[in-house]
Amino acid sequence: MKTIGRILIILVVFSIFAGLMVIVVNASGANAPDFNGAPQFRPEGNAGGIRPQSDANRPERGERDGGGLRWLSGAIRNVAVIGFLVTVIVWPKSVVKKKKKTAAVVSTDGKS
Amino acid sequence: MSNEVSKQTPSQTKTKLWLDIIIFIAFLVAMEPHSSGLAIHEWLTLSMMAALIVHLLLSWDWITEITRRFLGKLGGQNRINYLLNWLLFIDGTLLIVSGVMISEVALPAMGIKLPLGFAWRRLHDMSANFALILLGIHTAFHWSWIVNTFGRYLVQPVVRSFSSKQEKDTSI
């Protein structure tokens, strides 16, 4: 019962934020899909589609390309970003901790 | 959680460790929709919601304790960690909502069709990149917990089983 209550709290908070986001995006007008009554930004089928040349090799949303190797390189890149942030935050902290420790040891040695 | 208010049993800690590993791997798969395919990307992220709810339930004591103490006496790291977790929750919500809004597989499969939303696509990409940064900071804040728990529940049992095997071999 307690767990169900907690799940409901999480879902309610999630719904509040989700609702606010939908309201804000719709109210801002950034989501307006209207191109003079034709709510499409891509022509039907493959005919007549114009894409910028730089985008020619870019896959459409949902198209698979590269497979495992591409996934691996993407995963490595993402892990590297996380690893970089962990190093940047954890490393200075551990250096400060070590310095404090050695300072404490030196001060106790001096007293004795 | 690595801080002063954690009251978890060993089995809860073990569950959380495995759950976090699963969430992390799922996140890495979900971050590459062009490689995994849109169907895997959408269904995986929708099912990740359940895992994230369990992750929050396992940290419930920490969440309620810090919420209660937030305006009173509280260590700086706990305060920053708490705010960061809220930011992660809000960004995660935006990621899920924008993902649902531009869904091309999961929602149509459930018979739901939403109108085209131009802003949602950009918001989805933006919140995904932001989630990666927030996840990195979140991981850094819990690094000592990750290292300790990994050592206690994954590395030590393997080392122990190897050493007991070696002892058996030498006694034979």
Report what the structure shows:
Chain A has 2 helices and no strands. Chain A is mainly alpha-helical and 112 residues long. Chain A is extended. Chain B is 81% helix and 0% strand. Chain B has helices at residues 10-30, 33-36, 38-58, 60-69, 76-101, 106-109, 118-141, 143-171. The longest helix of chain B is centred in the C-terminal third of the chain and has 29 residues, at 143-171. Chain B starts with 9 loop residues before the first helix and ends with a helix. The chains are: A mainly alpha (112), B mainly alpha (172). Chain A binds chain B through residues 3, 6-7, 10-11, 13-14, 17-18, 21-22, 25, 28, 30-33, 39-41, 59, 61-68, 70-71, 74-75, 78-79, 81-86, 88-90, and chain B through 28-29, 31-38, 53, 56-57, 60, 89-90, 93-94, 96-98, 101-102, 104-105, 115-121, 123, 132-133, 135-137, 139-141, 143.
Quick synopsis:
The complex is a heterodimer of chains A (112) and B (172). By secondary structure, chain A is mainly α.
Give the largest interface pair and sizes: A-B, 44 and 42 residues
Order of helices and strands of chain A: HH
pLDDT averaged over residues of chain B? 87
Q: Quick one: biggest sheet of chain A?
A: none
Q: What are the segments of chain A in which pLDDT stays under 50 over at least 5 consecutive residues?
A: none
Helix segment tally of chain B = 8
Overall structural domain count of chain B: 1
* Secondary-structure-derived class of chain B: mainly alpha
Oligomeric state: heterodimer
End-to-end separation of chain A in angstroms reads 59 Å
Strand content of chain B: under 5%
Beta-strand percentage range of chain A: under 5%
Number of strand elements of chain B: 0
* Alpha carbon gyration radius of chain A: 27 Å
**Sheet bearing the most strands of chain B, described?**
none
Shape of chain B: globular
Sheet/helix structural class of chain A: mainly alpha
Radius of gyration of chain B: 20 Å
Individual helix count of chain A: 2
